[in-house]
Amino acid sequence: IYVFNKNYVQPYVQQFNLGVEHQLARDLSVSVGYLGVRGVHLQRTRDINEPLTEVPTNITVAGTGQVLTFNRLTGSRPFAGFGRIFEFESNANSIYHGLVLQANKRFVNNFQMSGSYTWSHVIDDNPDATAVVPGTDDAKLIYDPNNIRLDRGTGSNDVRHRFILSGVWELNYAQGIQNRLLKGLLEDWQLAGILNAQSGLPYTALVNSDLNNDGNNRNERAPGFGRNTFRMPAFFTVDPRVARTIRMTERAKLQLIAEAFNVLNHQNITGVRTTFFSLAAGQLVPQTVSAVGINAFGIPSSANVNGQGNVGRVLQFAAKVSF
Which of 9, 246, 259, 292 could be stapled to 254 by a disulfide with Cβ–Cβ 3.0 to 4.6 Å? Predict the structure, then answer.
């Protein structure tokens, strides 16, 4: 059953920013800026037909003797004769703070460069307007339907640090060469590249069982951990580009391009297996990489990596004719 909360309202966004820029030289400027974005009345879905009584329950971590505590829902559903009742609510919010430092060198003397560093933080209540299909979207639902404040935390798209450096260099220094062959070989070259380095995305430690008895085992957090308290490794890529322009006629020219993506072959992980514990014989069993015994949230290995961006290096060659 699906229902809309009687106080449901449409979401809206408030945005505010402030920036200061200073010119250091005729072709060089630096700037500092702040950007804030606040989302209000964001949508999320909650099962409102859950037992209202929560009982603190202890559970042991196998092999360690450690005892963890979680709240377990007990009793019957308020609306007898019904199972899950999904209510669309607009009581989630979000806030983004971003501080941006930037330096720009305009194209002068055949060269331009831009560099920027961003520190940012996203805090939200785990909103998700797409959680509408029972079973399929269970991972997007509220962790504890009776305590929605437990979902307040770092947003899933939070990138705390990000640095980008890019530049273009026109190797146009052959004008004074008299030898036509040598001049033809040396002129009209271009070097460019982009470096991108950023913090890894956050994720939540989960248990592959319905510990809190809310009928949903897809979003069960490991006891003792909050939402998005772990982070994937940092993301790093270097993408260079070399181009050569060959003038064929007065109007036509041929451009040869060679470029690489992630040329340093850095392993950029965009997803990991988030199961921290499994449940067996009434105990929590820590998940490990069986071959080497590394905890799933330690240094990632091929056994617990769930997704990668820019897998390996990619080389690309192209030719373009302009006339």
Answer: 246
